[in-house]
Structures are given as structure tokens and as C-alpha cells.
Amino acid sequence: MRIFLLAVISILLATPAMAESKKQAQARAEVLSRNKGFYKEVLMDGGISLTSRYFLPATRFLGVKMDYFASAPNNKLTKQDTLRQNNIICGSKDDTNGWLLYPDGAPRYRMIYVNGGKSGAHARSLGEEGRQRIQEYIAAGGSYVGTCAGAYIATKGSVRRSGGVSFTDLYWGLWPGYAQGTRLSKSFTTMSLPKRSPLLRYFDFGGDREVANIRHNGGCSAYEGKIAKLPEGTEVLARYIFDNTEKVQIDGKISVWGYKANEQSGRVVLCGSHPESIAEGERLEFMSAMMLYAMDGNPAPQIKGVLREGEVREMNKRTEDNDPAYTCIGDRQYHHFEIDVPRKCKRVIVKLDGYKGEKRYDLTLCAKRGELAFHDNTLLKSVARGFKKSLTIEKPKAGKWYVSVLCETAVTPLVGKYGTYYRGRIGVLNGVPYKISVEYE
Question: Do 329 and 315 form a contact (C-beta atoms < 8 A)?
């Protein structure tokens, strides 16, 4: 009897933790289930004056795909580093938007991760055009995680210990506040998560809401004080725990914070220390939680418009036309449309076609009633190779339906001296034009 009671007590004690673990697993799965309509999940910036990292453990831990740029191999900066960085972030004739954006300006990656290093030098190396491209990416719904220099560069500037604000024109201002240097180098910090920290949605960090031994080398905190107020909408995700000394007083200061400007923008998550290189334990979970929360801030896909019977919608505009509702589709991107099916309709026929002179690309056509159509949530789809096809919906229920076009064709990513580079169907980067129409019978 005693053994039985002990067993029951053990089960009862374990149940809350098990339930919480299941809840957190569901939260992680829910965020990752939205990895649709992006070329990949993560682009890692190890550009000029940043750490050239070749592996981000959290991407493998979460099972997401990543491309990366690693500059100055062997610490020897050349013109090739600048050329590669500009092509990736700012764009080129083969990809006028750069890697971060689709031809219509939508985010091509779910998030960008920016490494530590020298924030001012990296900002100068990208210049105003690079700054503008990063800002456009976040405003369009792409998310951001930055650690140490990657946190600094995302702010408006810094508050000096002696007082006063140092505004850095080339900083990106993704978070409209100021950082403050910790004056702590070659050391380790502990992070304390508030009870309501969104990072606790994904992991419990041992149940004590603390993550210890996070490398710190010249990082920062979010400034909150009289000189500059904490911007409205800032979320405190964690604070430092550190024994104060005469020179270093960061205990209780904001070490990780988040910000989302509006419903259509992506979420920015900034961290003053370095959890990114750890491949196990709570520090790996901590970095993964920051990435999950950033990606959780991606907005819902935009509807291109309503398809009307008898009208052929031509999706043939280019980036420079500045007409995203009619712009070409990019690699692994979805374009979503609405159709209003009338009562007593026997069938709906959606037709897709291309343009003469264009190379052949593979486009998939999907449809679903009441919610956006994706390849994996509907059986109503046409997956024949090429772009000329039709999709028939027999005896459809009246009401609002959604039709989507998916570009199956993508570039081929390879890895070289500077990280990821593209080969294969490069033309898809500037978009694939197509025509779409609907008929009711």
C-alpha cells in the first residue's frame, strides 16, 4: 500500500511539469508550423567587422534552414568581401532586392540573425543603402535577432556612462531606443527571466527562470532612465544577474528585450550577451527561444487581391515598378487571392498561364474554402510541372474561397569561401511573371 501511495504521489508531482512541457512543445510547434511562403527561415549575417560564424546550433536544434555570409576569411578583408555583402543585402542586377526581400518586397527569410563584433564598422560597411534595406525588411514582416554588436546596431545609439546620448546615424533604429555599454569583457553573465517573459512559452529553463554562464564580451543593456525613456512597446525578456563591482554595475539591467512596431512589421529581439555558440543545455534553449519569439512576430500573409470572373490578372510587374499587388512571384513564395463563389455554382475553374519567352518554371495552384490555401492543408491543388494549368473545384460551397500560387522553382544554394552562394535558376530571384483567372459554371 505504501509503495502504491508513493507511486501516486510521484505521478501527481510530475503531472504539472509534464503538462507544462507539453504546452511548451506545442508552442514551439505552432511557431514552426508557420514556416510557409519563405525561401528559408534564417539568414545569418557574419559580414564585415562581425564574427564570421559558420554554424548556428539553434537552427539545427529547431530543425530550420539557414543561409549565411561569412566575411574576411583568415581576417583578411578584401574588395570581394564588400562586393559579396552588397550583393546579398543591397542587391545586384540578378537580384535587385537582395536576398532578404522578394520582388514584391515581402520578406524572403523569416528572420535575420546578426552576430557580435564591431557594430559601428559593420554599419559603415553597409552604408545608407544597406541600412534602408534592413529597415524595409523588418517593416515588411521579417524578424530580427541580434546579440552584442547585433543588438547595438539595431538601436538608435547609446547612452554614455558620463551622461548624454550618442546618436549613430548609420545604426538601423529597428528598436527606437538606446543601448548602454556594460564595460564588461571576457566574462560570463546570468539571465533572469520575469514571470511573464514570452521566452517561457517555449522552455522552462530548469524551472528557476534563470540561465547561467552566458558569455559576455563588451555587450550592452537596454537603457531605461532619465536621459532616454524606454520606448513604448518594449518588452523586457530578461535581466542581468551580476555581482556589482565599482566599474561594472549591470545587476538588474535589461539584458534581452523585444519590440514589434506594428501588426505588419516583424519582431526585433536583442541580447547584450553571447548565447549563440552553445550547442546544448539551457543556453541553447535560450538562443532558440529568442529565435522562436522573433519568428512568432511574423505577420499573416497579405492577400494580393480578389479574382473576378472574366478578368485575367497579370502578375508581371517588377520590383522597380513599385506595384506589389501585381508583381512577379519569387522562389518558394506564395501569392494569395480571394474568390467569392456564388450560390448554385456547379464548378469553379481557376486557370494559370505564363508568358512567351520566359524560361519554364514550376508553379503550383492551390484552393481552400474559408482559410488561406497552402500545399499541406488542402487536397485541392494542381501540381503538374510547368506554369500552364487549371484547377477545377466541383460543387463548391458558396462563400469566400482562397486561391494561392506557389513558386516551386528555387535557386540552388552552395557553400564556399564566403558562406552561402547561389547557382542554378538565378532568374527566379527577380521574379516569375504569370497570369491567373477564374470562371464559374
Answer: yes
Q: Is residue 275 helix, strand or coil?
A: coil
Q: Which CATH topology does 34-295 take?
A: Rossmann fold (3.40.50)
Cell numbers linked to 187: 566574462
List the grid coordinates of 262.
506594428
With contact defined as beta carbons under 8 Å apart, do 59 and 42 qualify?
yes
Q: Which amino acid is it at 249?
A: Q
Q: Which three cell numbers stand for residue 309?
A: 470572373
Q: Cell triple for residue 124?
A: 559603415
Query: Cell match 555581482: residue?
Result: 243
Q: Is the pLDDT of residue 305 over 80?
A: yes
User: Is the whole model's pTM more than 0.85, yes or no?
Assistant: yes
Burial 89-102 (b: 16+ CB within 10 A, else e): bbbbeebbbbbbbb
Residue at grid coordinates 519568428: 295
Amino acid residing at 38: F
pLDDT band at 125 (very low <50, low <70, confident <90, very high): very high
CATH for 303-440, options being 3.90.1150.10, 2.60.120.380, 3.40.190.10, 3.30.750.24: 2.60.120.380
Q: Is 38 helix (H, G, I), strand (E, B) or coil?
A: coil
Domain residue extents for the chain: 34-295, 303-440
CA dist., res. 411 & res. 422, Å (int): 6
Cα–Cα distance for residue pair 291/279, rounded to 1 Å: 15
Contact assessment for residue 191 and residue 241, using Cβ atoms and an 8 Å cutoff: yes
Q: Is the predicted pLDDT of residue 153 greater than 90, yes or no?
A: yes
Cα(first)–Cα(last) distance of the chain, in Å? 73
The helix-helix angle for 2-32 and 281-295 (nearest 10°) equals 40
